[in-house]
Amino acid sequence: MTLDMDFVSKLLQALLLAIFPVLAGALVRWVLVAVKRESQRFDQQTLHTLTMLAELAVRAAEQAKLAGLIDDKKKYALEMMEQWFARRGVQIDLQALSAAIESEVLTQFPKTARSQ
User: Fold this and answer.
1) Which residues form the domain of 20?
2) Do residues 53 and 84 make contact, with C-beta atoms less than 8 angstroms apart?
3) In angstroms, rounded to a whole number, what is the distance separating the alpha carbons of residues 99 and 58?
4) What's the CA gap between 60 and 76, in Å, rounded?
5) How far apart are CA 71 and CA 65, in angstroms?
């Protein structure tokens, strides 16, 4: 009983043609899930960094204003944050920085911020 090599070759080719789309689809799905998970982790890290930096920038701006070193606290905080991200080569929207600063001001000074 000898197997015809042409038959075996065609059988393997047919099996691969049937299985390949399923395997390729599963591989693509796995890659997309991994990329999405990684981008979410990066986004969470960026958000955490943004929040922490906003907290520090608002505190520094408040101290600089009290010491008479600056006039515009928000501008000072915004420039600090923008420079921090720029030195690290991170492109970030200035509106996102501004929103983080406003949020932090409301957190640190809830009564003062609401009365203004």
Assistant:
1) 5-115
2) yes
3) 12
4) 9
5) 6
Q: HEC string of the chain?
A: CCCCHHHHHHHHHHHHHHHHHHHHHHHHHHHHHHHHHHHHHHHHHHHHHHHHHHHHHHHHHHHHHHCCCCCCHHHHHHHHHHHHHHHCCCCCCHHHHHHHHHHHHHHHCHHHHHHC
CA atoms of 76 and 40, how far apart (whole Å): 30
Q: What is this structure's pTM?
A: 0.60
- Please say whether the dihedral angle defined by the alpha carbons of residues 116, 73, 69 and 60, taken in this order, is positive or negative: positive
CB 61 within 8 A of CB 70: yes
Tell me: pLDDT of 116 over 50: no
The span from the first CA to the last CA of the chain, in angstroms, equals 94
pLDDT of residue 112: 64
Residue 31 pLDDT > 70: yes
Number of domains in the chain: 1
